[in-house]
Amino acid sequence: MNFKNPVPTVDIIIEQRGEIILIERKNPPHGWALPGGFVDYGESLESAAQREALEETSLNVSLLGQFHTYSDPGRDSRRHTISTVFVAKAVGKPQAGSDALKARFFTKNTLPEKIAFDHALILGDYFNWQENGGGLMWPPDKSK
After folding, report:
1. Is the CB of residue 121 less than 8 Å from the CB of residue 140?
2. Pick from 73, 68, 60: which is nearest to 10 by CA?
3. Which domain holds residue 25?
């Protein structure tokens, strides 16, 4: 039998001075996105998150924890991916690298219009989580 399985990915919400870092993608799908990418064979999710953050923003990050895993089969138009999202801290100025055209700081109120993948959903969940006092990273209390 030939099995088709989802591909594991990571995304990183990098916090710095009350802002988060997004990258503008060089490759399709275009738009702004959280730093992140595919997990390499033999690599842990945590190592992949730190590697992808460094490759795309030139920043070494300290992971604070896992936020949530997003698995909607339509979240990436290229293939079915499952992304584990991490929250991280970093020091320094981001510099675009790898498949990023730009790396910039944003707040909830200054997010760009064109956000790739399901990252607008992820950011909405993250800002709601923050506004509700954080605590357990998942599940958010949707009743508020």
Report:
1. no
2. 68
3. 7-131
